[in-house]
TrEMBL record:
Keywords: Coiled coil, Signal
Organism annotation: Paenibacillus alba
Gene3D superfamilies named in the record: Glycoside hydrolase/deacetylase
Signal peptide bounds: 1-33
Pfam family membership, one: Polysacc_deac_1
Main location: secreted
Name recorded for this polypeptide: Polysaccharide deacetylase family protein
Length: 272
């Protein structure tokens, strides 16, 4: 320590100027990194995407009930806050503060087991969810009936369109796409008496016509199945989700759920 003090005592003006320049450059880099992080990441929320909750070996989109129950127990134990679709939109639009650990639970298609299996598990924890429904499948074997859809809605689930017949949208003409997007919304609004303006692409597929039609028809947001957290910096019609697969272990599911959160924590620590 005495040697260090002695060396600083005889620092030349040139050295002082150099040190000052380095310090100012560091401050500038820090400010740039902070701004870059804010502009790059925006408000981030993990959106989990489920389909069928049941037992069907070999079908990666059918999650066993016990696996689903363990995931929901983990969210509760770790103090996650599942959001309504309205909460999600208001947080993304910076009109509402976000809880420390937000998550949006979404289900696609409209399987009967969403009401028979998933809803009772979610009810244990008071968790809301969002169902992206294809109305054309309602009442078919294995799918929800309208009384079940209404039961989900009454239980706090948000019901939103997933195409009328769950088509491959890019394979349709522009007018056929318009019919799928408009009719699915109209049917849901008629059956439930609630306005809906958020969409999820069947098979995660869309093209330029789809995006234009969503805007023309007054949809505010649309979800893909592209891997990642939804962010306020993404296109409102290209929000990402984390698709949950049957073959994924609980450990891997947790790692995927936490990945962006951990990056955020590391960034904060690096800047503190």
């Amino acid at each position: 320590m005495p040697m260090m003090l002695k060396r600083w005592r005889f620092t030349t003006p040139t050295k002082i100027a150099t040190i000052a320049a380095i310090f100012l450059a560091s401050v500038a880099c820090f400010a740039h990194a902070t701004l870059f992080a804010a502009e790059t990441h925006g408000i981030q929320i993990p959106v989990l995407n489920y389909h069928s909750i049941g037992v069907e070996p070999g079908n990666n989109y059918v999650l066993p009930p016990d696996a689903f129950a363990r995931q929901m127990a983990y969210l509760a134990a770790q103090h996650y806050t599942p959001l309504t679709l309205g909460d999600f939109v208001r947080i993304i639009e910076k009109k509402q503060p976000s809880p420390p650990k937000p998550v949006l639970l979404t289900f696609d298609d409209g399987y009967a087991n969403n009401a028979e299996v998933a809803m009772p598990i979610l009810r244990q924890y008071g968790f809301p969810a969002t169902l992206f429904l294809s109305p054309g499948a309602v009442g078919q074997p294995g799918y929800l009936s309208w009384p079940q859809v209404q039961e989900l809605s009454a239980a706090g689930w948000d019901i939103a369109p997933h195409g009328m017949t769950h088509p491959h949208l890019p394979k349709l003409s522009r007018e056929e796409q318009r019919e799928e997007l408009a009719e699915s919304r109209q049917v849901i609004e008629h059956e439930l008496g609630k306005r809906v303006d958020v969409f999820a692409y069947p098979y995660g597929e869309y093209n330029a016509d789809t995006l234009k039609l969503l805007s023309e028809l007054g949809y505010r947001y649309a979800f893909t199945i592209q891997e990642g957290w939804a962010s306020s910096n993404q296109s409102p019609y290209k929000l990402r989700r984390l698709v949950v697969h049957e073959e994924e272990s609980l450990k891997d599911w947790i790692l995927r759920l936490q990945r962006a959160e951990d990056k955020s924590v590391r960034l904060k620590k690096a800047m503190s």
